Automatic annotation (TrEMBL), chains A, B, C:
GO molecular function, one term: amino acid binding
Amino-acid positions noted as binding L-aspartate in the UniProt annotation, renumbered to this chain: K85, R167, R229
Descriptive protein name: Aspartate carbamoyltransferase
Keyword Coiled coil: no
Family: Belongs to the aspartate/ornithine carbamoyltransferase superfamily. ATCase family.
Organism: Thermalbibacter longus
Transmembrane feature ranges: none
Sequence positions that bind carbamoyl phosphate: R55, T56, R106, H134, Q137, L268, P269
Residue ranges occupied by any Aspartate/ornithine carbamoyltransferase carbamoyl-P binding domain in the UniProt entry: 5-146
Domain of life: Bacteria
Keyword NAD among UniProt keywords: no
Domain Aspartate/ornithine carbamoyltransferase Asp/Orn-binding, first and last residues per copy: 153-303
Length: 329, 329, 329
């Protein structure tokens, strides 16, 4: 698969793209020596955040800077700019595409990044479009699994928490359709269960999906626990929210039952759904995700914008990652 | 005319400055090859926006970055900084002038940039001072005309919409005093007509000014339609605002009547005063303005800050631009 | 004293650190020639401001840029990011430490930067933690004294204004414990006097402390007047605030009595506690502080992050600064 022009939704990615991207991320890692790279020198990225996200914005900007590119940034485009005067995302994108070589867009409306991509002649990366998707988050989540466990196939993965409104969990679930022999367990409160539509799509793509309630009983046999925050802002009914949150907490007691070779992930921010006492457990991989994400996004920017070939070290088998150094084991 | 130390108001610019600036902008265009230029390497620009404007801020920051300079940026200086503690613009400017080699200031008060310029020993560029002026917008508007039509003289130009409160239209009108043989048509709702004072100043400077209502009838003979948004925030009376907006809409019907060699400009953002179906018309030049503006601002920064001579390709006659490539024709 | 890993509080600094830092700041000054330095090329600084401060943020970002490093910046992290979703400063710091090589943190809570420093493996600089400390402000204040007066010892210094809530004055007072033969005069309204605890700590460290009311009488014999703003936001009682502010104004009349060789400092922003007519007096050093602060912060970043040795020009005696060029005399 050639590199896509725009990065808009998980559906775009096939297995070969994902695996090559992960290997490119590895080469970014080795490239992060003394000094910034000059691979993207002369390229300018614009980050347009109509909904604030310090973490995601800084991750993209760090990736671009480390590749030698330039950054222009709107941290708060929604409240401060022409948006309040009624400008469409299409107009904003067309104008900023006159300044920059790549747009990274976060927007509260589903489909906003795609609408921007339809009218500009520079690449657009969707950094979260409201309740819809967050494709680079899904990529960095799966990259973290690959990095930490050495493979993306044959895994038992539990998605926990908000599987209805949380776009990170849904985006990752969709990306898992590119893995093989995956058993997916959905552990969600009744008000935040995954939509039937998505469950059927996963099953149709060969992912074995099981909904269940007993995370404790499941823990010993899981490779990955992907915990998510119950997001108050996605609930219209406060009682539903209160019932949903705090139902599945990852604490020391759960960790004692959890597979000693497994990892815990979280798209972050977390509130209290993972107890801080778990942070020092080597299986707590959620802070390592940040650095993995940096390399993944460097690889993505480099691939989308770059003209220089990447020397990818060929690994022996299709899905074997160079586990070790950073891994949780 | 030597380059001015500060860029504060349209009145500063004479014809020779404008024409040399446009030719410098052309050389910036050719310089935008692979890699950023190093012309302003080691120079640091501070953008201080006390009133948000994503578009203008990003345009200046892209220009500086592409010239190899550095940027420090306050996207939201008004609400977040010492301004709320009662600090004057003079004090803020004096302090930031200790960090940076150039200040770009947007401020809600008329004269704010000039007050800053009076107390610092680095160049100051006015990026919009409230209801007053937006001189670099006027320069990029006229540069777009020069680029798209190949000349700045002998043109029939209509300014449409808010000619009383809109600083973009008023700034451009003032800059047109540096052109020759210009016929200017003012098409504004009764509540937003250009002040008599400005009309008299234009006439006094040799611009032939006509106020009229019938944009449709005028369209076939116009070279430039400069459409503007009726800005609600400039109206104190909501009824006046409602009466004014939506009176002169540029749509397919108007475009059918419009001069096939003409161009439509807009300082943007637009709301509904240009119908989106017009966007694909090659005469719709308002999105090309963004890129023209980038080069114009690069030329301005380079001229104000630079020490390296610019090699300007000499064109045969005084006002002939190298029309072609990007033009609408 | 080796360079500290983190810069969190004034207490960390001893006399030898302070003096070497000042000499390093001098070498930064000479290094600020044409072009940015490449000393920190490849290093990335993240500024996380949970409480806005345009001045301090831009100062750090200018320093980093002039040293060739990269910057990722959250101007408004408190209101826009995960913080509103309930994320702790520890979590935010851990994630951003995955992107950047250094964190500069401003936060409304005392101890926030220290809490961040405890969990990350990159250096953290405290850029103000609520009512607590602002250690780099104290360093640049004392550096300004050293630069302007040529020494840090044997000085008569008055701290004026808010000595209870203002962290700048308190931080400087603590740093003065590293100077010798200092006479410190505290001139504060009754509701904003320095805490007894801090006064005792100063006395215990050998600083001769006197509280008094008559700034006019004292002025002729002072070397430094350090004026501060009475900060409304630190007062819970509006009547106390009104009584406190405006009690000690520095105006032309006071300047006529003031030591002709002395200097006036202010951490800025000022409101009306220094009359603008004083600005042109060569003893008004408060705007020169901004540039001194730039070099001081460059030295600090370079020392904390740098691997290249700094060539410090050795001055003859321990505390003699190269007074002259920029000084007020």
């Amino acid at each position: 698969m050639p590199v896509p022009r725009h990065i808009l939704e998980v559906r775009q990615f096939d297995r070969s793209f994902v695996l090559e991207l992960f290997e490119r991320a590895e080469s970014m890692r080795s490239l992060a020596g003394p000094g910034f790279s000059a691979r993207l020198q002369g390229k300018l990225m614009a980050t347009l955040f109509f909904e604030p996200s310090t973490r995601t914005r800084l991750s993209f900007e760090a990736a671009m800077t480390r590749l030698g590119g330039g950054v222009i940034s709107a941290e708060y485009a929604g409240a401060t700019s022409s948006a309040v005067k009624g400008e469409t995302i299409e107009d904003t994108a067309r104008i900023v595409a006159g300044y920059a070589d790549l747009l990274v867009i976060r927007h509260p409306e589903a489909g906003a990044a795609a609408r921007a991509a339809a009218v500009v002649d520079v690449p657009v990366i969707n950094a979260g479009d409201g309740p819809n998707e967050h494709p680079t988050q899904a990529l960095l989540d799966l990259y973290t699994i690959w990095k930490e466990l050495g493979r993306i196939d044959g895994l038992r993965i539990a998605l926990v928490g908000d599987l209805r409104y949380g776009r990170a969990a849904r985006s990752l679930a969709m990306l898992l359709t590119q893995t093989r022999d995956t058993e997916l367990f959905l552990v969600a409160p009744p008000t935040a269960r995954m939509s039937q539509e998505l469950r059927l799509a996963l099953s149709g793509a060969g992912v074995r999906v099981t909904e269940l309630d007993d995370l404790e009983g499941l823990a010993p046999s899981l490779d990955v626990i992907y915990q998510t925050r119950i997001q108050r802002e996605r609930f219209t009914d406060l009682a539903d929210y209160e019932a949903a949150r705090g139902r599945y907490i990852i604490d020391q007691s759960l960790m004692r039952r959890f597979n000693p070779q497994g990892i815990v992930l979280h798209p972050l921010p977390r509130v209290d759904e993972i107890h801080p006492s778990v942070d020092d457990d080597p299986r707590a991989a959620y802070f390592r995700q940040a650095r993995h994400g940096l390399y993944l996004r460097m690889a993505l920017l480099d691939w989308v914008l770059g003209e220089q070939p990447v020397v990818v070290t060929a690994y022996s088998s299709g899905t074997a990652a160079p586990a070790g150094g950073d891994s949780a084991s």
